[in-house]
Amino acid sequence: MNTDQGSQFTSFVWIDRLRRSGVRISMDGKGRFLDNIFVERLWRSLKYECVYLHAWETGSEAKAGVRKWIEFYNRKRPHSALGGKPPAVVYWLRKDKNQTDQQEQRVA
After folding, report:
1. Which end of the chain is less congested by CB atoms within 10 angstroms, N or C?
2. Are residues 48 and 18 part of one domain?
3. Are 55 and 24 contacting, i.e. CB atoms less than 8 angstroms apart?
4. Domain span at 46
């Protein structure tokens, strides 16, 4: 498991549990925020575009709201880093292209 050095990942309880489970532990140096930048951006977007805009009354409502936003994020929300396309569109285009390339290689 590779984590940063946040207190939740350096506590005795966490480290002990990982070791007893046979998990190898690796920690980034302090200030290595870039290792988690994609996940951090996702959480920031989720909070500002979804969580902070709703006042859910139950955990079930929150779970459904977050699930709906994640579907939107993956399938409809434009991403500037992907040329304005949602991640699912880019994924399937690449997958289709790779399958076509593999089929062409098999024929050749």
Report:
1. C
2. no
3. no
4. 33-77
Whether 37 and 73 map to the same domain: the answer is: yes
pTM value is 0.59
Percent of the chain with pLDDT over 90: 48
Task: Tell whether 56 and 90 lie within a shared domain.
Answer: no
At 12-60, the pLDDT tens digits run: 888 888 889 998 877 766 655 566 677 888 899 999 999 999 999 999 9
pLDDT in tens, 65-102: 999 999 999 999 999 989 999 999 999 988 877 776 66
Token look-up 């991640």 returns 87
| Claim to verify: residue 83 and residue 65 sit in the same structural domain | no
Indicate the helix (H) or strand (E) that contains 2. strand 2-3
